[in-house]
Amino acid sequence: MAEASQTTDVSFTCQRCSMPLKLDESFRTVDARLCTEIAAPVVLLKPSSQDEPLVLPEPSTDDDTVCRKLTAPLRVVESENYTVVVGDNVHKEPGKFSQHFEMTARLFDVLTDQSEVEHPLCEECTDTLIDHMEKELSTAESEVKDYKRYLSERSDNDEESIEDLRADLAKLQAEEKELIETLHKVESERAAVFHKRDLLLQDKKRLEEDEKKHFKEYMDLKRQWICASDEKISVENQLAYAQAQLDLLAKTNVFNATFHIWHDGHFGTINGFRLGKLPDIPVDWKEINIAWGQTVLLMNSLAKRLSFSFGKHRLVPFGDRSYIEVVSEKGTEKLPLYHTGGLRFIYDVKFDLGMVAFLECLSQFKQEVEQRNKNFSLPYSMLDGKIRDNNSEKAFSIKYQLNTEEEWTKALKFMLTNLKWAVAYCSASSRDAPS
Ligand SMILES: [Zn+2]
């Protein structure tokens, strides 16, 4: 047990619990020889037998930097490794203290170096340490047994396993070689594929440029097509309009359009002007003259259209002063187709002759037309200044003199009707004729 004694000159402390130590009497006999023997290498002291436990160094749990603890109130004396407390009476024998202390301290140094456990230790700490070391020893022994067993198992199977491993190795090496060949093959294929890919990328780039160019051309052409389509539609519209106009014009009879022959009660009319007189409807001579002027103009135009001439007669359209010239051996006689209203007796003769001559001209025209087209005929026959209703077989004189106004008016209406039919014939012939 460590117990500080007042009579002790030098006191060491336990390096674990710091309790002051009372050294055993045997320490008084420590000398240099003993120290040298103890300081011999531990390796030489190790047991050679496997059965004996191995001495394993205990890992140091103490911090080396911590100063070893002292017991007060003694004087501190520094040695190489130790701090020791020294009582006052030590001074009385300095030489003896020094020699004994050094030997003891050296002994502890040697023990510390060899066992890697800090010395000195008190008895309790030593017991605790021994217990701890025994536990570690048993653990280590158990591990050693395990290792030994494993080692023996391994050595038993060594021959067989080495053969197997060699076979495996050869197999793996063959496989490695095969895989390396495959790898080379794959790498060359990869290089070929990359090369092909590069070529394809170049192709792709070129095709994309082509596509852009063609798309631009396509858009240009499409724009042109749209413009052309618009133009085509426009032209078609114009054509349709022109065709419609042409159809309209083809259906339009220029004579009908220019000379509208119709009727107004008992009167025949041309362009709205009445031709004739009735006792209860006294038509002004001026209107009758204008109507006659239109009639002469129409007759003359129809003759020109058919390139037909009226023999000794020549129509002269001159508004409300139109007339007919009759060429004979005696000379040219001028027969008026207008009435001034005055000088009735003398004047009426020439007016009547003019109207008879006009009817003669119409009759000639009728013959010409019927000659050209057998299927065509005018509804009323005309002869010697009279016009005949084919249904009633009744003839009406076109002369104003010695005639009733009713019959004269009727004769004029029939005459206009014949003229209307002549217009229809000319229109039909002009449509059938190649333009
Ligand atoms: Zn202790």
UniProtKB/TrEMBL annotation:
Residues 249-427 form the Atg6 BARA domain. GO terms for biological process: autophagosome assembly; cellular response to nitrogen starvation; late endosome to vacuole transport; mitophagy. Residues 130-224 form a coiled coil. The keyword Cell cycle does not apply. Residues 120-246 form the Atg6/beclin coiled-coil domain. Belongs to the beclin family. This is Beclin-1.
